[in-house]
Design the sequence.
């Protein structure tokens, strides 16, 4: 199966029919796009860090939802990071490293090149 290009994803809203993770039945759940999730890191001030939960809260707010899906947010964030790294990190690249915790399972899923960028920018 061919992978979708980052720009081919579309945001979605779903009403939860079952409790899932930290989300409850009836809540409006946001499913962002890789590009949208990566762009959210631009609002993180230099020297500050966000958790994945903070990223999900910002995504839900942007899409006017109650919550954001933890699975797709993590998966799409990783897709966006790897795409950014493959295209070359520049000064205009959103600061994704401000969300990635080096002791997290998420960090271990990143490519060695992406991990190196995160490690080199820990204080940024």
Sequence:
């Amino acid at each position: 199966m061919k992978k979708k290009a980052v720009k081919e994803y579309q945001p979605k809203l779903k009403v939860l029919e079952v409790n899932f993770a930290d989300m409850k039945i009836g809540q409006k759940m946001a499913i962002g796009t890789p590009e949208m999730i990566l762009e959210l890191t631009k609002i993180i001030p230099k020297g500050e860090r966000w958790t994945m939960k903070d990223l999900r809260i910002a995504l839900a707010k942007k899409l006017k939802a109650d919550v954001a899906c933890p699975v797709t947010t993590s998966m799409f964030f990783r897709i966006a990071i790897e795409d950014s790294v493959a295209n070359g990190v520049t000064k205009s690249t959103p600061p994704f490293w401000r969300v990635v915790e080096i002791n997290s399972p998420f960090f271990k899923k990143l490519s060695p090149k992406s991990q190196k960028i995160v490690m080199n920018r820990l204080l940024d």
Residues 6-120 form one domain. The helical segments are 34-40, 52-62, 70-87, 105-109, 112-120.
